[in-house]
Amino acid sequence: MPSLKTKNILIIFQCFSLVLFSFFNGFSQQNPGLSFYSFQTNFQNPASVGLKEEGSFQVNYRNQWTQYQSTYDGSGNLGTSIASLSLSLKPIPVGLGFMYLNDLSPSGAGLQFLRAQSAYHLEMGSGIISLGFSAGLATKSFDGRVFKTRDPNDPIANEISGKSIAKSSLDFGAGISYSLNNWTIGAAIDHLNSPTFSFTSSLNGSTNLQPVFLVHSSYELPILEKISLYPFLQWRSYQGQNVLDLGMRVKAFDLFWLGGNFRSNDSLTGMFGLNLLNNSLEFGYALDQNFINQNLKAPLSHELFLKFKLPDLQLIKKRNNVVPINTPRYKIN
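^ Type IX secretion system membrane protein PorP/SprF, sequence as received from the core. Prediction below:
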């Protein structure tokens, strides 16, 4: 039977998830989707920064619907770039993170996030429960020099016509996770305050980012001495819709891995990765094949990531409480 501590952990996690869900039920999702969502944990959940006293720097690039042919704007693609930094402030159980995201479309619309993140990691039972928070700026941008107006009465289109314009707003997020040595489960909400961007003086000239709720989990299952399975999943909910990602990869000899992912009502993904320089550098590539609404989208998307494991840095040093002992001839520490 589950221990009392385990039951308490599950109760805390369930209550937090329900509170998060109540904030946004019925809102739309506007965050870019990643194939490597299980690797870009700063973007997935702020509770992950500095987890297990590890530090890293990571960059992701996603080319969505490569050579997409639009009705009005010609060919192009959606490009998403992410850079994230995760630091541990050991020996205190606190992590700090920073993240920048740039999402651009061929129509001239853009979305940028700049965030600072923090997490507190508390040992509970045989695992670690983590609480995270993010704060920063979200920026909506439009390049009116390439933006094509569909509706001549659209107040935003008329405002930005022929010029480049950007508006920023405060943006907050929160998350929780519980981790064992080989298993993690978490929940997070992004755009907690639904940041609003006003491009004209009228109410109709405003747009906003709606909160996005997700639950994620991953597990390590050794099957042979140097071969392990890593199943992972992510569930997102927005505007009454649910998007489920189910994936798995096989890692061999701490050198390379192969895997795949299924995204409901969207795509199938194949991926592979390499661990280099004694696991201090990791590289991954993913190829998505769209299988829904193929007449409206380009069939393929590409994604890359590089992750650098930072040296073991103790940013806050413990004080040495040893009292020196002086003798006539020696000084003993």
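The domain at 4-332 is CATH 2.40.160.40 (Porin).
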